[in-house]
């Protein structure tokens, strides 16, 4: 009888507290949903801000000039040798074309302001046209040359009316640009220089090719070193290493290294690879070595997790039919664990692609114009290039910074997408 009474009281207490527990569960779900929504809102705002500032960098403003390729300026001796064509004063030609469009501009300061409508790289476009086709010497051709970066910003609408009215020079340039637009001499086209040029102090000639190639060479060194070493270390620790204090100490250190701030690896690379071994500073070789040290713990941890996911029955079956421990691992366990290991390696490499702090410590923050051609050439990487452009005072570098971020995000999304695809395609559930 007492037992029935106690059970009845217990059931009554449970039923009494049940609505509270259900209400608490609903609140917890609501809080979780709110957190997800807030996170998505911030993510959308971030992407919208980057895209709104960066999409315009993929086009650039060009001005059409009717250039008279005067042989007396380009090749007065008539030799048409490559050295003579390359050393001609092409600035005289495009400045003369601009002056012909605005003959009423005679004051020296206004002429200087008028010439500033055109990028200083216009001479390179004329030289390239002449070298590519010397027969245009002595003729007049319409050549589309890049406008100055401030003019490009003005045409794209990045100057508001208040800023234009406050600056006499910008106001004057706007009037000239309006006249050029009315005559069909201004157009926007795809900004090939952004993808085919290296870094530059001038926004109109600044590109990401050097940074992208530097990132590719650095990641290639990272993958060549970190993938085989990481996989071998994971296999040894999980399949062959004896369980003792030494292996426990190694495992603890690997887990700790995965959480070490990345700049510490940069300091290590500076002390060891550059100061001790004398490797070339700010080179993809040193950058790859530093990123290898940073990604190895991630690859080892992911590799061990993939090996643990293989059922023990696979090992027992392989050993039961006479396979040696090495054959068991290489022929049976490793193929089943490889998709998970590759996923970890891709995620670790994607993390390395977005790192800038360790590479700043080894000198990859230097201003480097030339595109690297080998693992020992001075270079920079895309995250560091973004950092450099973000610190530049010119207005045009704002959109180039955002555009470079978009390119980096595309690479990161592609690498993470490949990791997800490999996991979904080859993952086995036991």
Commentary on this structure:
This protein has 3 domains: 2-55; 59-197, no CATH class; 209-426, MetI-like (MetI-like fold), CATH 1.10.3720.10. The chain is mainly α. The protein has a 3-stranded antiparallel sheet with strand order 2-1-3. The longest helix has 53 residues, at 2-54. The protein has 19 helices and 3 strands. It is 68% helix and 5% strand. Helix 1 packs across helix 19, helix 7 packs across helix 9 (168-182) and helix 11 runs parallel beside helix 14.
What is the overall pLDDT average? Answer: 87
Pick out the low-confidence regions.
Answer: none
Given the structure, what is the number of helices?
19
Largest sheet: 3 strands, antiparallel
According to CATH, the fold-level topology of the largest domain is MetI-like fold
Supply the number of structural domains: 3
State the helicity in percent bands: 55-70%
CATH-defined architecture of the largest domain: Orthogonal Bundle
How would you classify the quaternary structure? single chain
A few lines on this structure:
The chain is 68% helix and 5% strand.
């Amino acid at each position: 009888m007492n037992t029935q009474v106690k059970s009845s009281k217990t059931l009554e207490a449970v039923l009494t507290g049940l609505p509270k527990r259900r209400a608490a569960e609903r609140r917890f779900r609501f809080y979780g949903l709110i957190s997800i929504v807030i996170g998505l809102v911030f993510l959308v705002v971030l992407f919208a801000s980057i895209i709104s500032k960066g999409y315009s960098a993929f086009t650039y403003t060009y001005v059409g000039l009717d250039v008279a390729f005067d042989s007396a300026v380009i090749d007065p001796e008539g030799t048409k040798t490559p050295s003579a064509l390359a050393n001609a004063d092409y600035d005289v030609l495009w400045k003369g074309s601009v002056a012909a469009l605005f003959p009423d501009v005679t004051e020296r300061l206004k002429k200087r302001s008028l010439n500033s409508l055109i990028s200083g790289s216009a001479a390179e476009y004329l030289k390239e046209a002449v070298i590519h086709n010397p027969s245009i010497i002595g003729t007049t051709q319409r050549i589309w040359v890049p406008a100055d970066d401030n003019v490009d910003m003005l045409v794209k609408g990045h100057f508001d009316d208040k800023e234009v009215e406050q600056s006499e020079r910008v106001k004057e340039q706007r009037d000239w640009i309006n006249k050029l637009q009315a005559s069909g001499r201004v157009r926007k086209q795809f900004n090939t220089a952004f993808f085919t040029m290296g870094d530059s102090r001038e926004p109109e000639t600044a590109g990401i090719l050097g940074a992208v190639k530097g990132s590719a060479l650095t990641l290639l060194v990272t993958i060549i070193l970190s993938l085989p070493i990481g996989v071998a270390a994971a296999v040894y620790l999980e399949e062959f290493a004896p369980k003792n204090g030494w292996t426990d100490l190694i495992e603890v250190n690997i887990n700790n290294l995965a959480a070490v701030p990345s700049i510490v690896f940069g300091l290590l690379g500076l002390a060891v690879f550059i100061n001790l071994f004398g490797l070339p500073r700010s080179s993809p070789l040193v950058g790859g070595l530093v990123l290898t040290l940073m990604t190895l713990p991630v690859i080892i941890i992911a590799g061990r997790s993939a090996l643990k996911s293989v059922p023990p029955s696979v090992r027992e079956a392989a050993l039961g039919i006479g396979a040696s421990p090495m054959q068991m691992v290489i022929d049976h366990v490793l193929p089943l664990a490889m998709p998970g290991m590759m996923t970890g390696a891709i995620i670790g490499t994607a993390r390395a692609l977005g790192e800038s702090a360790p590479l700043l410590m080894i000198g990859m923050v230097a201003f480097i114009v030339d595109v690297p051609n080998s693992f020992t050439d001075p270079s920079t990487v895309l995250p560091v290039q973004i950092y450099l452009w973000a610190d530049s005072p010119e207005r045009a570098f704002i959109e180039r910074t955002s555009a470079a971020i978009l390119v980096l995000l595309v690479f990161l999304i592609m690498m993470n997408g490949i990791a997800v695809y490999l996991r979904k395609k080859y993952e086995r559930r036991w």
